[in-house]
Amino acid sequence: MIQEERLIQIKHLLKKEHQVSTKEIAQKFGVSFDTARRDVIHLTTTGQAVRIHGGMMEINQNDVPNFLARNQVQSPVKLKMAQMAKRFVHPGQCDFIGPSTILKQLCPMLNGINMQIVTNSIDNALSLLTTEFPSVRLLGGMINKQQRYIYSETTLETIRRIRFNTAFIGGSKVDTDGVYTTSMADAEVVRAAINRANQIVLVAEKYKFTNQITSPYMSIPLDKVDVLITDAPLSDEIKQHFNSKAQIIPVLKE
Question: In this protein, which residues make up the domain named HTH deoR-type (predicted)?
Answer without folding.
Answer: 3-58
